[in-house]
Amino acid sequence: MSHNPEPQPYAALRAQAIESLLVEKGLISTDAVDALVDLYERDIGPLRGARVVARAWADPDFKTRLLADANAACAELNPSIEGLRTRLVVLENTPTVHNMVVCTLCSCYPWAVLGLPPSWYKSAPYRSRAVLEPRAVLAEFGVELAPGVEVRVWDSSSETRYMVLPQRPAGTEGLGEDELAALVTRDSMIGVAQVASPTAAQAA
Amino acid sequence: MNGVHDMGGMHGFGPIQPRDNEESFHADWERRVPGLTTAAARAAHVNLDQFRYAIERMPPAQYLSASYYERHLFSTELNLIEKGVLTHDEIEQRMESLRRDPSAQPRRDEPAVATQVIESRLASELPPPVDSTRARFKPGDAVIVRNVHPSGHTRMPRYVRGKRGTIDRMYGVEPLPDANARGQGPAPEPLYSVRFDADVLWGGSADGRGSVNVDLWESYREQPREDPA
Known about the structure:
The complex is a heterodimer of chains A (204) and B (229).
Chain A: H1 10-24, H2 30-43, H3 47-58, H4 60-68, H5 70-76, E1 88-92, E2 97-102, H6 111-114, H7 124-132, H8 134-140, E3 150-155, E4 161-165, H9 177-183, H10 186-190, H11 198-203
Parallel strand pairs in A: 1-4, 2-3
Helix pairs in contact in A: 3-4, 3-9, 4-5, 7-8
Chain B: H1 33-44, H2 48-56, H3 60-65, H4 68-82, H5 88-100, H6 111-122, E1 142-144, E2 164-174, H7 177-180, E3 189-197, H8 198-202, E4 210-217
Antiparallel strand pairs in B: 1-2, 2-3, 3-4
Helix pairs in contact in B: 1-4, 2-4
């Protein structure tokens, strides 16, 4: 028995048992499970959302269309956003309004534009506190808002998905869309960060 | 149901610590869960609301200590058992045999199905245009959320029940999760995003100027109240 590998944790073994039974019964196939793992991990990430933000910053008409009907606007992009199958709503941050997204009941997240959610988004502290004390939550992410700024929290309780259009930082006037997209972070599209200006980012 | 999953406004879970909680998966086995869950739901005809309702039925202490993908695994298993696809004993026995021989995991490939799974996952679909003809309310209308406590699945968080909000946006007609989770058809209803002032939700505990928008189906609301003046 000395050749046995480390015993599997209980949940891992249980997952393996369920998968093997379903495979054996011919109900699922192994490569379909493999393919989804690869898709989630390799191909879908926040760069998709960042491209949408960069286009909106660069093209005011696109921004107007995006805020009115995000699904249609995302379909215009080349390449368009794949896998957008439910209603997407894009919320614009301004000097007076700050939007922030949560799902208090489970962990709904705009997968098609931001990829896999980080653990903290799915955690009890974020889910419980984002609606009750958004400013305290933002402070933990290093965002300090002036008292006059209105904080709008969006609790994703339906199949509508929300993404934040962050404010365009100063010092980005001459940048092209690719350079703009490179500045946009996942957290800024969840609404727990602001996009730093490129000079500030270099200094940091 | 008034479960521990309904976390909005609860205290005691501590700081968020985003820098220590960046990863999407906590262990290698979790990477297979999204694919396993998706494939099992297809095979056993489990809809999204049935999937969520099974997560909500996880015993509360277990729910709080479980990772996100442990909850998904629990839900997948519960639905497979309830639909008669697998039995509890069958899973226990298979765990025992895998414990003895970890290489006893069968493999079956169907490339055409795998391609189809990915293609359907990447397919985009424009939501239907908002149909307001069935909607009783319009943006700007004041509404009060019903003060009810259904024991089944619902997407009406506790923290908005009995509270007054304003219709902010309309999202057309969508399946009612409460009905869909029972597997008795989607019973579609008008869906709205309703804005609640932070003061209305949290009174003196609100932490500044702001609001919370919650997506709510039409039957989650009382009749609009007449102007109190």
